Amino acid sequence: MSYRVIQWATGNLGRLAIEGILAHPELELAGVWVHSASKDGRDAGEICGIEPTGVRATRDIDSLLALDADCVLYSPLLANPSEVVRILEAGVNVVTPMGWFFPPQSPGTARIEEACRESGVTLHGTGIHPGGITELFPLMISALSHNIRHVRAEEFSDIRTYQAEAVVREVMLFGKPPEEASRSPMLKLLGDGFNQSIDMVAEAIGFRLDKQKRTHHEMALATADIETPVGALAAGTVAAQRFRWQGLVDGEPVISVGVNWLMGEEHLEPAWNFGPRRERFEIAIDGDPPVEVVFHGLHPEGPGGDLSRNKGIMATAMHCVNAVPNVCRAEPGIKTYLDLPMVAGHAAPRS
Fold it and tell me: pTM here?
Protein backbone atom coordinates (compact mmCIF):
# COMPACT_ATOMS: atom_id res chain seq x y z
CA MET A 1 0.00 0.00 0.00
CA SER A 2 0.99 3.63 -0.43
CA TYR A 3 0.90 6.18 2.35
CA ARG A 4 -0.77 9.43 1.32
CA VAL A 5 1.32 12.45 2.33
CA ILE A 6 0.53 16.16 2.54
CA GLN A 7 3.52 18.46 2.18
CA TRP A 8 3.03 21.44 4.51
CA ALA A 9 4.86 24.48 3.04
CA THR A 10 6.96 24.75 -0.12
CA GLY A 11 10.12 26.59 0.87
CA ASN A 12 13.52 25.17 -0.05
CA LEU A 13 13.00 22.08 2.11
CA GLY A 14 9.36 21.57 1.16
CA ARG A 15 10.03 21.63 -2.59
CA LEU A 16 12.77 19.02 -2.24
CA ALA A 17 10.52 16.95 0.03
CA ILE A 18 7.83 16.89 -2.68
CA GLU A 19 10.39 15.44 -5.11
CA GLY A 20 11.30 12.82 -2.51
CA ILE A 21 7.67 11.90 -1.86
CA LEU A 22 7.00 11.49 -5.57
CA ALA A 23 10.06 9.24 -5.96
CA HIS A 24 9.41 7.05 -2.90
CA PRO A 25 7.84 3.68 -3.74
CA GLU A 26 5.70 3.64 -0.58
CA LEU A 27 4.42 7.22 -0.75
CA GLU A 28 1.84 9.21 -2.69
CA LEU A 29 1.55 13.01 -2.74
CA ALA A 30 -2.00 13.72 -1.53
CA GLY A 31 -1.92 17.49 -1.02
CA VAL A 32 0.19 20.60 -0.56
CA TRP A 33 -0.31 23.50 1.84
CA VAL A 34 1.15 26.89 0.87
CA HIS A 35 1.39 30.17 2.74
CA SER A 36 1.30 32.67 -0.11
CA ALA A 37 -1.64 33.59 -2.32
CA SER A 38 0.67 33.51 -5.35
CA LYS A 39 1.09 29.72 -4.96
CA ASP A 40 -2.54 28.95 -4.13
CA GLY A 41 -4.09 26.75 -6.84
CA ARG A 42 -0.83 26.04 -8.68
CA ASP A 43 0.27 22.50 -9.48
CA ALA A 44 2.88 21.20 -7.01
CA GLY A 45 5.17 20.32 -9.92
CA GLU A 46 5.08 23.88 -11.22
CA ILE A 47 6.01 25.20 -7.75
CA CYS A 48 8.93 22.75 -7.61
CA GLY A 49 10.10 23.25 -11.19
CA ILE A 50 9.32 19.66 -12.21
CA GLU A 51 6.69 17.89 -14.29
CA PRO A 52 3.02 18.47 -13.33
CA THR A 53 1.80 16.22 -10.53
CA GLY A 54 -1.95 16.70 -10.73
CA VAL A 55 -1.90 17.91 -7.12
CA ARG A 56 -2.78 21.57 -6.63
CA ALA A 57 -1.55 23.60 -3.68
CA THR A 58 -4.00 25.28 -1.36
CA ARG A 59 -4.17 27.51 1.69
CA ASP A 60 -7.41 25.84 2.81
CA ILE A 61 -6.47 23.74 5.83
CA ASP A 62 -9.93 22.22 6.20
CA SER A 63 -9.89 20.86 2.66
CA LEU A 64 -6.42 19.37 3.17
CA LEU A 65 -7.35 17.64 6.42
CA ALA A 66 -10.41 16.17 4.69
CA LEU A 67 -8.23 14.35 2.14
CA ASP A 68 -7.92 11.17 4.22
CA ALA A 69 -4.12 11.50 4.17
CA ASP A 70 -1.89 9.33 6.33
CA CYS A 71 0.83 11.86 7.15
CA VAL A 72 1.77 15.52 6.99
CA LEU A 73 5.40 16.46 6.36
CA TYR A 74 5.33 19.69 8.34
CA SER A 75 8.03 22.20 7.38
CA PRO A 76 6.89 25.84 7.52
CA LEU A 77 9.37 28.63 8.26
CA LEU A 78 8.27 28.66 11.91
CA ALA A 79 6.42 25.90 13.74
CA ASN A 80 2.96 26.63 15.10
CA PRO A 81 2.20 24.11 17.89
CA SER A 82 -1.53 24.84 17.71
CA GLU A 83 -1.46 24.00 14.00
CA VAL A 84 0.36 20.74 14.72
CA VAL A 85 -2.25 19.81 17.33
CA ARG A 86 -5.00 20.53 14.79
CA ILE A 87 -3.38 18.17 12.28
CA LEU A 88 -2.97 15.45 14.87
CA GLU A 89 -6.56 15.85 16.10
CA ALA A 90 -7.69 15.31 12.51
CA GLY A 91 -6.13 11.85 12.71
CA VAL A 92 -3.05 12.54 10.57
CA ASN A 93 0.49 11.54 11.52
CA VAL A 94 3.18 14.25 11.47
CA VAL A 95 6.86 14.10 10.50
CA THR A 96 8.72 17.38 10.98
CA PRO A 97 12.21 18.91 11.09
CA MET A 98 10.84 21.76 13.22
CA GLY A 99 11.48 20.28 16.68
CA TRP A 100 10.10 17.62 19.04
CA PHE A 101 13.30 15.55 18.63
CA PHE A 102 13.28 14.52 22.31
CA PRO A 103 10.93 17.02 23.92
CA PRO A 104 11.12 17.72 27.65
CA GLN A 105 8.05 17.43 29.81
CA SER A 106 5.95 20.58 29.42
CA PRO A 107 2.29 21.58 29.00
CA GLY A 108 2.89 21.90 25.24
CA THR A 109 4.39 18.43 25.00
CA ALA A 110 1.55 16.98 27.07
CA ARG A 111 -1.02 18.56 24.75
CA ILE A 112 0.62 17.06 21.66
CA GLU A 113 0.96 13.65 23.32
CA GLU A 114 -2.73 13.81 24.27
CA ALA A 115 -3.75 14.71 20.70
CA CYS A 116 -1.69 11.79 19.36
CA ARG A 117 -3.20 9.25 21.70
CA GLU A 118 -6.78 10.48 21.33
CA SER A 119 -6.53 10.30 17.53
CA GLY A 120 -4.31 7.22 17.30
CA VAL A 121 -1.49 8.98 15.44
CA THR A 122 2.22 9.70 15.82
CA LEU A 123 4.51 12.74 15.72
CA HIS A 124 8.21 12.36 14.93
CA GLY A 125 10.82 15.15 14.90
CA THR A 126 13.81 14.49 12.66
CA GLY A 127 16.39 16.26 10.53
CA ILE A 128 20.16 16.56 10.30
CA HIS A 129 21.55 19.15 12.74
CA PRO A 130 19.87 18.87 15.20
CA GLY A 131 18.71 15.40 14.28
CA GLY A 132 20.77 12.66 12.70
CA ILE A 133 24.20 14.25 13.20
CA THR A 134 23.57 15.09 16.85
CA GLU A 135 21.42 12.13 17.93
CA LEU A 136 20.94 9.11 15.68
CA PHE A 137 24.46 8.73 14.28
CA PRO A 138 26.34 9.37 17.55
CA LEU A 139 24.24 6.67 19.19
CA MET A 140 24.80 4.32 16.25
CA ILE A 141 28.61 4.60 16.34
CA SER A 142 28.68 4.58 20.15
CA ALA A 143 27.84 0.87 19.85
CA LEU A 144 31.48 0.35 18.79
CA SER A 145 32.83 1.51 22.19
CA HIS A 146 32.50 1.01 25.92
CA ASN A 147 33.59 3.20 28.84
CA ILE A 148 32.29 6.24 26.92
CA ARG A 149 33.59 9.47 28.44
CA HIS A 150 32.56 12.13 25.91
CA VAL A 151 30.39 12.46 22.78
CA ARG A 152 30.90 15.35 20.33
CA ALA A 153 28.85 16.36 17.26
CA GLU A 154 29.97 19.46 15.36
CA GLU A 155 29.26 21.41 12.16
CA PHE A 156 31.80 23.40 10.10
CA SER A 157 30.08 25.54 7.44
CA ASP A 158 30.73 28.47 5.13
CA ILE A 159 27.75 30.63 5.92
CA ARG A 160 28.06 32.49 2.61
CA THR A 161 25.95 29.72 1.08
CA TYR A 162 23.02 30.66 3.36
CA GLN A 163 21.54 33.47 1.29
CA ALA A 164 18.80 34.69 3.63
CA GLU A 165 19.91 38.24 4.34
CA ALA A 166 17.35 39.02 7.04
CA VAL A 167 18.23 35.87 8.98
CA VAL A 168 22.01 36.18 8.55
CA ARG A 169 22.15 39.83 9.54
CA GLU A 170 19.26 40.31 11.96
CA VAL A 171 19.03 36.92 13.67
CA MET A 172 22.52 35.40 13.33
CA LEU A 173 23.96 38.95 13.67
CA PHE A 174 26.75 38.70 11.11
CA GLY A 175 28.01 42.14 10.17
CA LYS A 176 27.10 43.55 13.60
CA PRO A 177 29.48 45.04 16.17
CA PRO A 178 30.75 42.38 18.60
CA GLU A 179 28.99 44.10 21.51
CA GLU A 180 25.65 43.58 19.78
CA ALA A 181 26.44 40.07 18.54
CA SER A 182 27.44 39.00 22.07
CA ARG A 183 23.72 39.12 22.86
CA SER A 184 22.96 36.69 20.00
CA PRO A 185 19.61 34.89 20.27
CA MET A 186 21.13 31.83 18.57
CA LEU A 187 22.19 30.19 21.84
CA LYS A 188 18.51 30.06 22.77
CA LEU A 189 17.02 29.49 19.30
CA LEU A 190 19.34 26.61 18.41
CA GLY A 191 19.66 25.47 22.00
CA ASP A 192 16.04 24.35 22.10
CA GLY A 193 16.87 21.65 19.55
CA PHE A 194 20.47 20.89 20.51
CA ASN A 195 19.64 20.51 24.19
CA GLN A 196 17.07 17.88 23.22
CA SER A 197 19.87 16.12 21.29
CA ILE A 198 22.06 16.19 24.38
CA ASP A 199 19.27 14.79 26.53
CA MET A 200 18.52 11.97 24.07
CA VAL A 201 22.15 10.86 23.86
CA ALA A 202 22.47 11.02 27.65
CA GLU A 203 19.31 8.96 28.09
CA ALA A 204 20.49 6.26 25.69
CA ILE A 205 24.10 6.03 26.87
CA GLY A 206 23.36 6.41 30.58
CA PHE A 207 24.86 9.76 31.55
CA ARG A 208 23.11 11.34 34.53
CA LEU A 209 23.42 14.99 33.55
CA ASP A 210 23.64 17.97 35.85
CA LYS A 211 20.51 20.10 35.81
CA GLN A 212 22.23 23.01 34.07
CA LYS A 213 23.91 22.83 30.66
CA ARG A 214 26.87 24.96 29.61
CA THR A 215 26.82 27.25 26.58
CA HIS A 216 29.68 29.06 24.85
CA HIS A 217 29.87 31.70 22.10
CA GLU A 218 33.01 32.94 20.31
CA MET A 219 33.37 35.47 17.48
CA ALA A 220 35.99 36.39 14.89
CA LEU A 221 35.94 39.90 13.42
CA ALA A 222 36.58 41.10 9.88
CA THR A 223 39.99 42.77 9.49
CA ALA A 224 38.84 44.28 6.17
CA ASP A 225 35.54 44.68 4.38
CA ILE A 226 34.28 41.23 3.23
CA GLU A 227 31.99 40.90 0.24
CA THR A 228 29.28 38.27 0.77
CA PRO A 229 26.04 37.25 -1.00
CA VAL A 230 24.11 39.18 1.68
CA GLY A 231 26.16 42.35 1.26
CA ALA A 232 29.47 43.63 2.55
CA LEU A 233 30.53 42.98 6.16
CA ALA A 234 32.41 46.04 7.39
CA ALA A 235 35.83 45.73 8.98
CA GLY A 236 35.51 45.33 12.75
CA THR A 237 32.15 43.54 12.58
CA VAL A 238 31.38 39.87 13.20
CA ALA A 239 32.41 37.61 10.31
CA ALA A 240 32.62 34.18 12.01
CA GLN A 241 30.97 32.58 15.04
CA ARG A 242 31.22 29.44 17.12
CA PHE A 243 28.43 28.20 19.38
CA ARG A 244 28.61 25.22 21.73
CA TRP A 245 26.13 23.48 24.04
CA GLN A 246 27.34 20.95 26.61
CA GLY A 247 25.76 18.42 28.91
CA LEU A 248 27.71 18.08 32.17
CA VAL A 249 28.26 15.46 34.83
CA ASP A 250 29.63 16.93 38.08
CA GLY A 251 30.53 20.06 36.13
CA GLU A 252 32.56 18.25 33.46
CA PRO A 253 31.35 18.08 29.82
CA VAL A 254 30.30 14.63 28.61
CA ILE A 255 28.25 15.61 25.53
CA SER A 256 29.13 18.58 23.28
CA VAL A 257 27.24 19.90 20.28
CA GLY A 258 28.66 22.77 18.25
CA VAL A 259 28.48 24.90 15.12
CA ASN A 260 31.33 26.77 13.43
CA TRP A 261 30.07 29.36 10.94
CA LEU A 262 32.56 31.31 8.84
CA MET A 263 32.02 33.93 6.16
CA GLY A 264 34.90 32.44 4.20
CA GLU A 265 38.42 32.14 5.56
CA GLU A 266 39.97 35.49 4.63
CA HIS A 267 40.34 38.65 6.72
CA LEU A 268 39.39 37.06 10.06
CA GLU A 269 40.77 37.82 13.50
CA PRO A 270 41.35 35.32 15.05
CA ALA A 271 42.41 33.66 11.77
CA TRP A 272 39.95 30.79 11.86
CA ASN A 273 39.75 28.33 8.95
CA PHE A 274 38.21 24.96 8.15
CA GLY A 275 41.51 23.10 8.09
CA PRO A 276 42.34 20.30 5.64
CA ARG A 277 39.00 18.54 6.23
CA ARG A 278 37.14 21.59 4.87
CA GLU A 279 33.38 21.96 5.39
CA ARG A 280 31.97 18.96 7.20
CA PHE A 281 30.10 17.45 10.10
CA GLU A 282 32.08 15.52 12.71
CA ILE A 283 31.03 12.96 15.30
CA ALA A 284 33.57 11.74 17.86
CA ILE A 285 33.19 9.19 20.63
CA ASP A 286 35.81 9.26 23.39
CA GLY A 287 35.57 5.68 24.59
CA ASP A 288 37.38 2.36 24.30
CA PRO A 289 38.12 2.35 21.43
CA PRO A 290 37.71 6.00 20.40
CA VAL A 291 35.71 6.43 17.19
CA GLU A 292 35.41 9.40 14.84
CA VAL A 293 33.24 9.83 11.74
CA VAL A 294 33.41 12.76 9.30
CA PHE A 295 30.49 13.54 6.97
CA HIS A 296 31.17 15.23 3.64
CA GLY A 297 28.71 15.90 0.83
CA LEU A 298 26.11 17.76 2.92
CA HIS A 299 27.30 21.26 1.96
CA PRO A 300 26.80 23.24 -1.28
CA GLU A 301 29.78 23.50 -3.63
CA GLY A 302 30.37 27.08 -2.49
CA PRO A 303 28.76 30.53 -2.73
CA GLY A 304 28.68 30.22 -6.53
CA GLY A 305 26.98 26.81 -6.55
CA ASP A 306 23.33 25.94 -7.15
CA LEU A 307 21.90 26.92 -3.78
CA SER A 308 18.34 26.05 -4.80
CA ARG A 309 19.38 22.41 -4.29
CA ASN A 310 21.39 22.82 -1.10
CA LYS A 311 22.63 19.32 -0.23
CA GLY A 312 22.17 19.82 3.51
CA ILE A 313 18.56 20.90 3.03
CA MET A 314 18.03 17.98 0.66
CA ALA A 315 19.41 15.56 3.26
CA THR A 316 17.12 17.04 5.92
CA ALA A 317 14.12 16.68 3.61
CA MET A 318 14.98 13.08 2.73
CA HIS A 319 15.47 12.15 6.38
CA CYS A 320 11.87 13.29 6.88
CA VAL A 321 10.49 11.64 3.73
CA ASN A 322 12.15 8.28 4.42
CA ALA A 323 10.78 8.26 7.98
CA VAL A 324 7.14 8.52 6.89
CA PRO A 325 6.38 4.79 6.46
CA ASN A 326 7.81 3.89 9.88
CA VAL A 327 5.92 6.75 11.52
CA CYS A 328 2.65 5.71 9.90
CA ARG A 329 3.18 2.18 11.25
CA ALA A 330 4.17 3.32 14.76
CA GLU A 331 2.11 3.25 17.94
CA PRO A 332 0.42 6.56 18.87
CA GLY A 333 2.39 9.29 20.62
CA ILE A 334 5.53 11.37 20.22
CA LYS A 335 8.16 8.97 18.87
CA THR A 336 11.91 9.67 18.70
CA TYR A 337 14.87 7.82 17.17
CA LEU A 338 14.89 5.73 20.36
CA ASP A 339 11.37 4.44 19.59
CA LEU A 340 11.33 3.80 15.83
CA PRO A 341 12.97 1.13 13.67
CA MET A 342 15.96 2.11 11.56
CA VAL A 343 15.04 4.42 8.68
CA ALA A 344 16.63 3.64 5.30
CA GLY A 345 16.57 5.24 1.87
CA HIS A 346 15.36 3.42 -1.24
CA ALA A 347 17.00 2.28 -4.44
CA ALA A 348 16.81 4.23 -7.68
CA PRO A 349 14.39 2.67 -10.18
CA ARG A 350 16.06 0.50 -12.83
CA SER A 351 15.20 1.04 -16.48
Answer: 0.92
